[in-house]
Amino acid sequence: MLFDLVFESKSYFTPSLHLKLYNASISQDLNNRLRDIVILEEPNILKNVPPLDESDDPTWITGRLWNYNFLDLDYDEVRQLKSWIKEQYHQYMTMLGQEPVPVYIQCWVNIIRNNGRWIFPHNHVDGHSRDENAPQEFAYLSGNLCVQTTDTSTWFRNPFLSKKCIDIPNIDGEMIFFPSFITHWTDT
Q1: For position 116, what pLDDT does the model report?
Q2: What is the DSSP letter of 128?
Q3: Nearest residue to 175 via CA among 76, 72, 105
Q4: Quick count: other Cβ atoms within 10 Å of Cβ 33?
Q5: Is 55 helix (H, G, I), strand (E, B) or coil?
């Protein structure tokens, strides 16, 4: 489903921004199975995938995002997720009146336990991939899928007015597509 992320401006010199985002939900069953896979694979990723920076917290899976793709894991549920993401991408592009183009999907896991951690403000315009098959000029669409949340939101920042932010509550099983240039982050 399309919905609007709107940053209004009262100034002629600062543009308003109206973006069409897209959300869809996976089944509760698939969501639960993916949650279990994430928890099962967390120790393997922490052990076998090096962090980007040697000084990163060794228990923080997010710091390994550059060095693996969750969608490469050998589980039927992960293959279902990859297929579902592609279907949703095509649906989103169709709703926007755009022709879908071939895409590379980079997916990583964030596990934020009740320990004060959060995903800091960032965007994905650099492609978030070191894979030469995913050149940066194709880093135009991002998304997040929440598999287990409790009273958290993902925040989106106006690219022209950094103090203007909008939060969208995280819902289990819901994925949101958004433009990669939008700075976003999570609650603790």
Answers
A1: 82
A2: T
A3: 105
A4: 19
A5: coil
Q: Higher-confidence residue: 64 or 103?
A: 64
Backbone angles phi, psi at 176, to 5 degrees: -125, 125
The answer to whether 71 and 78 have CB atoms below 8 angstroms apart is: yes
- From the number of C-beta atoms within 10 Å of its C-beta (0-12, 13-18, 19+), residue 156 rates as buried
Cα–Cα distance, 136 to 159 (Å, whole number): 19
Burial class (CB in 10 A: 0-12, 13-18, 19+), 149: middle
Taking Cα atoms as reference points, which of 57, 31, 175 lies closest to residue 115?
A: 57
Q: How far apart are CA 141 and CA 124, in angstroms?
A: 8
CA atoms within 13 A on the CB side of 58: 2
Least confident of 49-58, 91-100, 152-161, 171-180: 49-58
The pLDDT of residue 135: 52
DSSP 75-96: -HHHHHHHHHHHHHHHHHHHHT
Q: What is the pLDDT of residues 56-81, one digit of tens each?
A: 888 899 889 888 999 999 999 999 99
Q: Answer yes or no: are the C-beta atoms of 177 and 88 closer than 8 Å.
A: yes
